[in-house]
Every structure is written in C-alpha cells, then in structure tokens.
Request: fold
Amino acid sequence: AVLRSAASHFPARRYTLVAALTGALGFVGNLAATMPLTLALAGFGWLPTFLTVGLATVSYVLVVQFAVREAPHEAAGRPKQVAVRQLGRQVTEAWRVPGTRLGFWVHFTTSFSPSVLSLMWGMPYLVRSQGYTETQASGLLMVLVFGSMLGGPAVGAYIGRRPEMRMPLVITYLAGSAVWWGLLLGWPGRLPLLVLVPALVWVSLGGPASMIAFALARDYNPLSRVGTATGVVNVGGFTAIAVSMWLVGVLLELTGDSFRIALLGVVALLVLGSWRVAVWWRRARAAVFQAQARGEDVPVQLRRRAWDVQIPEPREPMRDGERRLARADAR
Reply:
C-alpha cells in the first residue's frame, strides 16, 4: 500500500529513492524492536512499554488516516470496491507484462539471501559452523541491517538519476553474490573477519537491489494497476525467502548439521533466479524495442545489444497499387 501511494505521489525518477527510503525506515523499526525495546522492557516493565508502543502506533494511524491521500488532489470518499473476478483479471494482466515478470524474478533473486541469514540461519551458521559466540554473531548480523539501511538510499538516488543502470546493478549484485557465497561455503576452516564482514556487507545490498523490482512494476504498468503489479512482484521475494529457509532446514537434517552443504540451497535458488532474471530481462527489452518501433513512449531509452532478442523491423503499409499486385501474384 505504501509503494502504491508513493507511485501516485512521485514521478518515476524519484519513486525508487522513495521506495528505498521506505525500506530504510522499515529497518529502523526493526532496530527499535530489538535492543531499545529490550532495554525498555527491563527498565519500565511490560505494561508501560507496550502501552507507549500502542499509543505511538495509534498516533501514526491517525496521521495516515487524515493527512495521507491515495493520490494527489484525490477526491474524498471511500475507495471503489473491486469484485473478486475483476481482481483476478488485474493480476493476470499484470503478470502478462514482461516488466512485471522481470520485477518478480528480480525481487525473488535479490531479497532472499539477506533475509535467510538475518531472520533464521545466520545465527546458527556463525555459532555452530564458524565458532563465534552468540554476542559476536549478533554483532556480525547487524552488518546486514546497517548495510541495507545505508545502501538503500544510495542505490535509490543513483538509479533515480540513471534509470538505465537498474538492471546492470542487479546483474552486478547477482554476480558478486555468487562470488561471495562461493567464498563463504568453500573457505577451509573458520572464515576470517576480513572475508566474512565484506561478504555480509555485499549480501546486505540485496535489500536495496530488490527495490529495483518495484520500480520496474511501476514503470511498465498503468497507474491503476501498479498496486496489483507491486503485489505480484512482492510475492516473488517472499516465496524465495520461505523456500530457502525450508530448504536449508531440510538439508541440515539430511546432512547432520553440515551448513556447508545446507547453504547450497541458497546458492541453488540464486542460480535459478539469476537464470530467470536473464530470460525476462531479454524479453522485457524486446517489449521495449517493439514499443519504440511503434513510436510509443517508454520508461527508459535502450540501445540494442548483440544478445538482444532479434525483432523484425515493422513493415510499412502497402499502397493500393501494391496490394493489387500482391493479390495478382497470389493468384
């Protein structure tokens, strides 16, 4: 809902930065829910702490309710109700757009690695496999949070100025992730901090890179369908997170707590997602070239590359005399 509202209020060049700032604020909330909340519980007790949190939440809800509009100059009133059948049609139409499908796979491939480490398997990996204490492991995992917080606005500002660099940044991140995961899983013995910390910093950039997926959904869908397309894209990331967490757990049980083998499940999803990103990047570029050939406005002007899908040049319509000759030849 936040991204849908941002798409209505901000132009395409600023949307990615706004989306990245939104994600960074989300990480601030994550931080507030950890150490500060723990200290407040210890110092003030449960009732005062959660009463304060509840009042802050209600205040935020009131501000959003009375100060935030779905779109600029929006007329007051309740939003239109959408029938279930129409909703299914909107999802289908959004899914058919190559830009939406590309965004789905970009979000699938970039967002799950930092989530898998920060939410579930990072702590046991660092403690049981690498031999760090729980305190040291917690400090190392904070690298993922701060990397995403700082990297999000930087990436958003850059691609807001250079939208043609969105997919090259995604490809660079995926290639670098393959290298770092290879080091994490192939390094003999305990990983030194000089390897582990840069690897975690790089993995943390998956959150900022995943914001590019929402920019693709916004650019290649009409505004009335951006919310649906954003939801479709978001499903990609959460699907990858859920599958990778489950897959690592299954492999741990099968291999007797071998994280070196279990985390290959993350690499497998990274390879799958990278392949689908490459496929749909070419198809999305082909759709843009077709739109350019028809004289339509496109979000980003592209230059054809040797690896692009070859599209036949549009033929000029035949004149009346040419049509008669063609029919005569056909006889």
User: Anything to note?
Assistant: Residues 320-331 have pLDDT under 50 and may be disordered. The domain at 2-32+82-293 is CATH 1.20.1250.20 (Growth Hormone; Chain: A;). The chain is about 75% helix and 0% strand.
